[in-house]
């Protein structure tokens, strides 16, 4: 379970131009320090819709420091850290754009997304940060304040960690292994939690008649576990791509030869998360 990480959130003036940043660092699952600054994005245009959301105007930040001037203070929260954000694709894009804009070297860090993780672990009508905060009973006073949203994101990450750990226990000790926490979640939803253990249950023939090839490394499962999931749900695993292959399941560092053969044969490419979403009926 990841307990040392930094939750972060950007608010933007327009596009990828940040006007504020909040970061909350966690050590051993507890909040240890925080960072918050308004940022001069050095652009004149502030999207009116963005202003309506976060309330930050050009006048609020015109005399603040820009991203480059704040970088030395930001770096200890980023370099070598595990960064967590809600819709991390956006916040990472803002970070990388700003680094590139000011000619700053990209630091080394790992990235997790609470939005994607929540979609994988629980079935809810909405995955907005405010909706998830309400569902998991995380107090939130000022939504769209970057520091407040970073804190909520961090607390949500810890909640999702617990869900995943409880699921692992059930996978190890049997599907009927008691979990008051998962029962609480299921009761709040008014239905059984649709989570990845459903994909492991082997009660589906959803993949019956389909041939799969697996390539690369996966975030949530080992290759053996991925093979097991496919076979238990009716699919067939083969070692090489051919004209009979229906899907190539691609992880990171997928083999170039398999990708080339898949393209040549018209084999569909599918990611780990896409496969899980099919099996979990999202």
Automatic annotation (TrEMBL):
PANTHER family: DNA POLYMERASE III SUBUNIT EPSILON, EXONUCLEASE. DNA polymerase III contains a core (composed of alpha, epsilon and theta chains) that associates with a tau subunit. This core dimerizes to form the POLIII' complex. PolIII' associates with the gamma complex (composed of gamma, delta, delta', psi and chi chains) and with the beta chain to form the complete DNA polymerase III complex. One of its GO terms (cellular component) is cytosol. SMART domains: BRCT, EXOIII. Residues 202-282 form the BRCT domain. DNA polymerase III is a complex, multichain enzyme responsible for most of the replicative synthesis in bacteria. The epsilon subunit contain the editing function and is a proofreading 3'-5' exonuclease. It comes from the Bacteria. It comes from Zunongwangia profunda. One of its GO terms (molecular function) is 3'-5' exonuclease activity. GO terms for biological process: DNA metabolic process. Transmembrane segments: none annotated. This is BRCT domain-containing protein. Pfam families: BRCT, RNase_T.
């Amino acid at each position: 379970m990841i307990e040392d990480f930094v939750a972060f959130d950007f608010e933007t003036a327009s596009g990828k131009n940040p006007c504020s940043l909040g970061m909350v660092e966690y050590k051993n699952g507890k909040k240890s320090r925080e960072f918050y600054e308004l940022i001069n994005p050095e652009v004149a245009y502030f999207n009116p819709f963005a202003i309506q959301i976060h309330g930050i105007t050009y006048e609020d930040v015109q005399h603040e420091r820009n991203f480059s001037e704040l970088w030395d203070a930001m770096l200890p929260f980023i370099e070598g850290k595990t960064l967590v954000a809600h819709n991390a694709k956006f916040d990472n894009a803002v970070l990388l754009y700003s680094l590139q804009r000011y000619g700053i070297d990209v630091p080394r860090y790992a990235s997790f997304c609470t939005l994607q993780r929540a979609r994988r672990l629980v079935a809810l009508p909405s995955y907005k940060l405010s909706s998830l905060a309400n569902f998991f009973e995380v107090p939130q006073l000022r939504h769209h304040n970057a520091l407040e949203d970073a804190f909520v994101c961090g607390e949500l990450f810890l909640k999702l960690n617990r869900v995943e750990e409880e699921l692992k226990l059930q996978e190890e000790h049997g599907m009927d292994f008691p979990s008051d926490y998962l029962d609480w979640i299921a009761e709040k939803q008014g239905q059984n939690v649709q989570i990845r253990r459903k994909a492991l249950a082997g009660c589906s023939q959803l993949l019956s008649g389909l041939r799969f090839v697996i390539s690369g490394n996966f975030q949530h499962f080992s290759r053996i576990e991925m093979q097991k999931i496919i076979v238990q749900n009716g699919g067939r695993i083969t070692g090489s791509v051919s004209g009979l292959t229906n899907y190539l399941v691609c992880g990171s560092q997928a083999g170039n030869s398999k990708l080339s053969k898949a393209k040549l044969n018209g084999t569909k490419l599918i990611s780990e998360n896409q496969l899980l979403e099919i099996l979990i009926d999202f």
